[in-house]
Design a protein that fits this description.
The complex is a heterotetramer of chains A (176), B (454), C (174) and D (501). Chain A has 176 residues and is of the alpha+beta class. Chain A has five helices and five strands, in the order ααβαββαββα. Chain A has a three-stranded antiparallel sheet with strand order 2-3-5. In chain A, strands 1-4 form a two-stranded antiparallel ribbon. In chain B, helix 14 packs antiparallel against helix 15, helix 14 packs antiparallel against helix 17 and helix 15 runs antiparallel to helix 16. Chain B is built from 18 helices and nine strands. The N terminus of chain B is likely disordered. Chain C has 174 residues and is α+β, with helices and mostly antiparallel strands. Chain C is 43% helix and 10% strand. Chain C has seven helices and four strands, in the order ααααβααβββα. In chain C, strands 2-1-3-4 form a four-stranded mixed sheet, with helices on one face. In chain C, strand 3 and strand 4 form a beta hairpin. The chains are: A alpha+beta (176), B alpha/beta (454), C alpha+beta (174), D alpha/beta (501). Chains in contact: A-C, A-D, B-C, B-D, C-D. At the C-D interface, helix 4 of C face strand 8 of D.
């Protein structure tokens, strides 16, 4: 075995110095910014995720501002984790028949698989882009309509692409 | 405020220009020009009610009477062309249920106005035919179902019936033969569907004019579920002549399969539109030149709708080479129907004609069966967007498949009455539709005239 | 309990004596009471002008039918009007031969002149318009019917003359 | 029996039976909308096409009666294409309302679209616009656009409920269903039109937007509204909540129909009406503990032969099995002799049909069964007045009350409550919360509601009917038999001495 290997085997501090050299090299490179550091100053700067990222759901709005969802329960049916709870009701707007009085998603059970987005016939629920959500107790993880549709992070950009032509009703028993 | 029942002061037939034309053979309309022929005395003076006397006084038994009508091979003049004798024969002989004879005077087929001439000028001939028919099928009661809009004709027929009652041709023990018979005029209320046999029966039962399911056929279970026979006005008007002159004489007239004469109501681009009675089998060319006075303004014939709006269209060549009887017209892919001929000259845009027909059938469909209710509406919408908005090539295929899936798929034949013409227009006049596809047609939808050649 | 039992006959409209007598005569002509519904509705429309809800109610009581059955018939046939019609109801025939004769143009001019659509009446209550299908007078196209009286081979001049005579109240005889 | 050949195979079917029914019984599904076995034949929807060899024109099956030698083909390509096109005609003016339509999941158009349709519609033009969400009273909502004009509801009101309130107005594709000027419907069988409507045109207000039908499971049961004993299906979601009742076909009892008063009877079984936990003077306790406390009091009375101080109150809504188990345990095992109940004879005597179809005057659902079982077991029954007298004379120290879940029994419970002496130990066994509040001071044991029971009841025609439900809505609510068996087990178990509280 070479002399250096022999010396190394007997004394321990050579190993330590070698290790320190490696960490020192990384330290210097990172500190001086020669090497591009992967860590970013979260939350001031954020990493850019792809458009297909599946974050917290979004309830889209119609151009007129109402919720696009018609409470047809297809998402609740398609959801493997059974975490969407909808209570439908008569809509105050006479031209819309049915709207969700209650639309809750239990984030603790949701696996963010996007099945609800696929099942929705009118692009009313989408997988959002934001992922930050923290609460003290698991009950608050059940998010309702106000959070899903009107949370500030959406910046009112959640408009549904599906536009139902406005229907006008007129009496149909033959006028003359 | 519509008040119309009482305000006719001088009741006289409205439709008057009936001068006989060369080439006509008038059996029914022989005395139509005689003034006041619609009253009983004048009609009797011209030989009226002889057939009734011949049948009732000799108490001719019903079998020979029906055989006589079958022998004359007279076919229904309303549109279906079903041999009248057979229809009378279907009525079961020994049921205790009352039998009914209904006269189908609900003439609302576009292009047809021949019944009106009989109703206004020769009501007694129809009444006589009805009494003989009722005697043949042992009907105690018969109804004349006149379309609601013919208010004049209703008045005239009503008075003719009162005259017949006074003269003893109606009521109890007619002419001492023991056969008593009641006759009532029933006004329709404006529905083309009530021209269909079972539609008329439903309307007479006080319901919407929805046709009934067949089987059971009306001869077995018709009006109020009793045996009923429904005959057209002209068919019943032929009966007295047949009884007077015998079945063989009638069979000799016209062609072997379509015997006797047919009253044609001609309209459209002819110099003399009107009602003409010609012998069956007369070539259309002679009929057009001699009887109707040729094309209006010397124009060229483009197309012919022979038997009312439900008859598929015929090209000019087909029309010129055919003779006016059931078989020849059928061989050209059309049908004689009710004899409401509409002549179209070369200035007419046939797609607009078809659109107008589709509007008619969409309005008149009774809405009972889905293929007809939705199909007529759809055809009209397709034709509307084809002519008014943007013509698309797949519309033609859509028109074709929709019509094919309407024919024979409904309770009555109203769906076929628009589906078959649509198929015939597509097949025989593709050029008309091509004009629209190239966008080169600038026809006014007002009257379907092609503007560019004036 | 059928819909009829809890309805007493207190509908505002009622047949005048001679109309009632004509009503009885009509009933005798048919074997089933319901068969006389169409003529009775014609009678009612002549008597009261148009088939309003009260008329439908009244006819359904005297004919022992349910209002729905009578309303079915009234809304099915074109000659029963659900809305009041003018003193002179102009019904233009829109179908094939008359259309080729140019009734669409006559109809458009008439509507433009009085500014009314089917089902409406001119403010002075004299005119109302209706689009009808084939009225069975194609030989003398184009044609129309005023209060169910036929006026044939119409030309714009004849139409104007007819309108003036109707405005004066006694329509000319065709 | 008629020998019939369908699709090449020979079958035996009763002669004269409608071809559509016969095929359905043989497992061959002929699509149909306007045909309903309980109504007249309309032949309007043109979906039930069959091809007869040798006849090129397709025939409709609903107008055909089975007779010897009838030969039809239901699955030839020509028939399939014809049915596909009939469905296309139905769909061209049908609004795309599936997301908001209650009928989605059990809609005739969806079913046959999946079976026969499966293509994209070629309709490019505008659909007909008609009135939507028309209010026809407090039971039904009508949507004229969804209606496919099959005429079933109109024929129902004309032939079955005989009020003819519905009609088809106008003509052609402007035809609409409705009452005259959309007036309120006063028919007492109008919710049946919701069941027979193949599409979502007529929907019931009680079930409007409540739940999606594919979440519901159905269980066969019998309505407890009155003594008619209409066979029904209870629709519930995983045994937690009952959403609606639908009639089930039974030729002798109610054919296909059910009256509207029976419809809301399921509400008494749901959470807000139910006593969900045993209570003693308002304090909740588990059911088995409640049974033991009941036993302790009972034991002392039985031990000291004072069984004549114990009385029991029963009512004809109990199923025959429940009554037999009551009599077996309380009378035979414990020796209780004083039994009081509603006057079942009187309600059986003056029971008559209220309207001309189904509804009966006697609101108890098992009167005949009650009379049969009590006479078989020779049970001596006292009346309510006798019970009140004995209570007034304070002869009764221990009262067992079986409360029914319907309003009809509350009257007599109130009278018992009024006559109850302070020191009498009462035990209420009832599913109903209102009864428990009435006897708030006493021991209340929750029992199961009528729609969870599994017994047999007998309608006024003395026809035995099985209640076949297989779910329990609340764990703490036991059936009467379970309560009594655990009571008798408690009785057998050697008991350490407990002084009477």
């Amino acid at each position: 075995m070479s002399a250096l290997a022999e010396l190394e085997k007997r004394s321990y501090w050579i190993g330590i110095v070698k290790g320190l050299l490696i960490t020192g090299r990384h330290f210097i490179l990172n500190l001086t910014g020669i090497r591009k550091r992967p860590t970013i100053e979260y939350p001031e700067k954020r990493r850019k995720y792809s458009n297909r990222f599946m974050g917290i759901h979004v309830l889209t709005l119609k151009p007129t501002g109402e919720i696009a969802c018609t409470a047809c329960m297809l998402c609740a049916t398609n959801c493997p984790a059974d975490c969407i709870h909808i209570v439908a009701a008569e809509s105050p707007n006479p031209n819309i028949e049915k709207y969700p009085a209650v639309y809750e998603i239990d984030l603790m059970r949701c696996v963010f698989c996007g099945f609800c987005e696929e099942a929705c016939p009118v692009d009313a629920v989408r997988m959002g882009r934001d992922y930050e959500y923290a609460e003290l107790s698991e009950r608050n993880f059940v998010i309702g309509i106000d959070y899903l549709a009107h949370r500030p992070q959406l910046k009112k950009k959640n408009v549904s692409v599906f536009h139902e032509p406005e229907k006008t009703f007129k009496s149909t028993v033959r006028a003359d | 405020m519509i008040k119309h029942t009482q305000h006719y002061k001088n009741i006289r037939p409205m439709y008057v220009d009936l001068t006989p034309q060369p080439g006509e053979k008038r059996l029914l309309m022989e005395h139509v020009q005689v003034p006041n022929i619609h009253t009983l005395p004048v009609y009797e003076s011209k030989g009226g009610y002889q057939a009734l006397k011949k049948v009732l006084e000799s108490k001719m038994d019903r079998e020979t009477l029906i055989k006589e009508v079958q022998g004359s091979a007279v076919r229904g003049r309303g549109g279906a062309g079903f041999p009248t004798g057979n229809k009378w024969n279907f009525v079961p002989k020994n049921t205790d249920k009352p039998h009914y004879l209904l006269c189908n005077a609900d003439e609302s087929e576009p292009g047809t106005f021949k019944d009106r001439v009989i109703l206004e000028h020769l009501p007694h001939m129809m009444i006589e035919g009805m009494i003989i028919g009722s005697y043949a099928i042992q009907a105690a009661r018969s109804y004349v179902y006149i379309r609601g809009e013919y208010t004049y004709a209703t008045e005239i027929v009503d008075r003719a019936i009162q005259e017949a009652y006074k003269a003893g041709y109606l009521g109890k023990n007619i002419l001492g033969s023991g056969f008593d018979h009641e006759m009532v005029v029933h006004r329709g209320a404006g529905a083309y569907i009530c021209g269909e046999e079972t539609g008329l029966i439903s309307s007479l039962e006080g319901k919407k004019g929805w046709p009934k399911l067949k089987p059971p056929f009306p001869a077995v279970e018709g009006y109020l579920r009793c045996p009923t026979v429904v005959n057209n006005v002209e068919t019943l008007a032929c009966v007295p002549w047949i009884i007077n002159h015998g079945a063989e004489a009638y069979a000799k007239i016209g062609t072997p399969k379509s015997t006797g004469t047919k009253m044609w109501s001609v309209s459209g681009d002819v110099t003399r539109p009107g009602v003409y009675e010609v012998e069956n089998g007369i070539p259309f060319k002679d009929f057009l030149e001699k009887v109707c006075g040729g094309m209006k303004g010397g124009r060229k014939l483009k197309a012919l709708i022979p038997g009312g709006s439900s008859a598929p269209i015929m090209t000019a060549e087909e029309a010129m080479s055919c003779t006016l009887d059931y078989e020849s017209i059928a061989s050209k892919g059309s049908m004689l129907g009710s004899g409401g001929m509409v002549v179209l000259d070369d200035s007419r845009d046939l797609v607009q004609v078809l659109k107008n027909l589709a509007e008619f059938y969409r309005e008149e469909s009774c809405g009972q069966c889905t293929p007809c209710r939705e199909g007529t509406g759809w055809l009209e919408k397709i034709l509307h967007s084809f002519t008014e908005r943007q013509a698309r090539r797949e519309d033609l295929q859509l028109l074709k498949t929709t019509s094919q899936n309407m024919i024979g798929r409904t309770i009555c034949v109203l769906a076929d009455s628009i589906a078959m013409p649509v198929l015939s227009y597509l097949e025989k006049f593709p050029g008309e539709f091509e004009n629209y596809l190239q966008g080169s047609s600038n026809t006014s939808s007002m009257s379907g005239r092609v503007k560019h050649n004036g | 309990m059928t819909a009829l039992e809890n309805k007493k006959i207190e509908a505002p409209v009622k047949f005048s004596p001679e109309a009632q007598q004509k009503f009885e005569k009509i009933l005798t002509q048919y074997d089933s009471k319901r068969s006389s519904l169409l003529p009775v509705l014609h009678l009612a429309q002549d008597e009261f002008g148009y088939c309003s809800d009260a008329v439908v109610e009244y006819v359904s009581q005297i004919m022992e039918l349910s209002p729905a059955q009578v309303m079915e018939v009234v809304s099915f046939y074109t000659m029963y009007h659900r809305k009041p019609t003018g003193q002179n109801h102009f019904a233009f025939c829109m179908t094939l031969s008359c259309w080729m004769g140019g009734t669409h143009q006559l109809y458009k001019n008439f509507c433009a002149r009085f500014g009314i659509k089917p089902g409406e009446v001119t403010p002075d209550g004299k005119f109302s318009v209706g689009k009808m299908e084939c009225l069975g007078s194609c030989g003398t196209a184009p044609m129309l019917s005023v209060n169910e009286t036929y006026y044939e081979s119409m030309t714009p001049e004849k139409l104007n003359r007819l309108i003036e005579s109707c405005r004066k109240g006694e329509p000319e005889v065709p | 029996m008629a020998k019939v050949k369908i699709n090449g195979k020979d079958f035996e079917v009763p002669t004269g039976q409608n071809l559509v029914d016969a095929a359905e019984n043989l497992g061959i599904d002929i699509p149909h909308y306007c045909y309903h076995p309980g109504l007249s034949i309309a032949g309007q929807c043109r979906m039930c096409y069959v091809e007869q060899p040798g006849n090129s024109k397709l025939q409709i099956a609903c107008n055909m009666k089975c007779s010897d030698g009838l030969e039809v083909i239901t699955d030839s390509p020509k028939v399939k294409d014809a049915v596909k096109w009939s469905l296309e005609f139905h769909l061209i003016n049908h609004p795309i309302d599936c997301p908001i339509c209650d009928q989605a999941g059990e809609c005739g158009l969806q079913d046959y679209y999946m079976e026969v349709g499966k293509y994209s519609s070629e309709m490019r033009e505008h659909k007909q616009i008609k009135q939507k969400a028309v209010d026809l009273g407090e039971k039904i909502v009508l949507d004229k656009e969804r209606c496919i004009l099959c005429g079933r509801c109109v024929r129902f009101t004309q032939e079955v409920s005989k009020t003819s309130e519905l009609g088809i107005y106008n003509r052609g594709d402007r035809s609409v269903i409705g009452t005259v000027n959309d007036e309120v419907m006063k028919d007492n069988y109008q919710v049946n039109t919701v069941d027979i409507c193949p599409v979502g045109a007529l929907t019931s207000k009680d079930f409007r937007f409540e739940q999606r039908v594919w979440f519901l499971k159905e269980v066969s049961s019998v309505c407890n509204g009155c003594s008619a004993g209409c066979n029904i299906d209870t629709h519930h979601k995983s045994g937690k909540h009952i959403y609606r009742l639908k009639p089930r076909y039974n030729p002798e009892v109610n054919e296909y129909w059910m009256c509207d008063d029976g419809r809301p009877t399921y509400k008494t079984a749901n959470y807000d009406h139910r006593l969900t936990a045993a209570k003693l003077g308002g304090v909740e306790l588990p059911t088995n503990e409640a049974v033991t406390t009941w036993m302790n009091d009972l034991r002392t009375l039985i031990a000291t032969e004072r069984t004549d101080e114990i009385a029991a109150w029963i009512h004809p809504d109990l199923t025959s099995e429940e009554i037999t188990s009551i009599v077996k345990t309380l009378r035979d095992e414990f020796g209780i002799s004083q039994f009081y109940s509603e006057d079942a004879d009187k309600s059986a005597r003056d029971d008559k049909t209220v309207d001309q179809l189904l509804k009966r005057a006697d609101l108890w659902c098992n009167t005949q069964g009650f009379l049969k079982v009590t006479s078989a077991l020779k049970l001596k029954l006292g009346s309510l007045n006798q019970l009140e007298e004995r209570l007034a004379q304070a002869k009764i120290n221990h009262l067992v009350i079986f409360g029914s879940e319907k309003n009809v029994g509350v009257q007599s419970l109130k009278r018992i409550r009024a006559a109850l002496p302070a020191d009498c130990f009462t035990v209420l066994i009832s599913p109903r919360l209102q009864n428990a509040e009435l006897f708030s001071h006493s021991l209340a044991i929750p029992s199961i509601s009528h729609y969870e029971k599994n017994g047999t009841i007998m309608n006024w025609k003395k026809i035995e009917q099985k209640l076949g439900s297989d779910f329990r809505m609340f764990k703490s609510a036991w059936s009467v038999e379970e309560i009594l068996t655990s009571l008798s087990q408690e009785y057998q178990r050697p008991q350490k001495e407990v002084s009477r509280a």
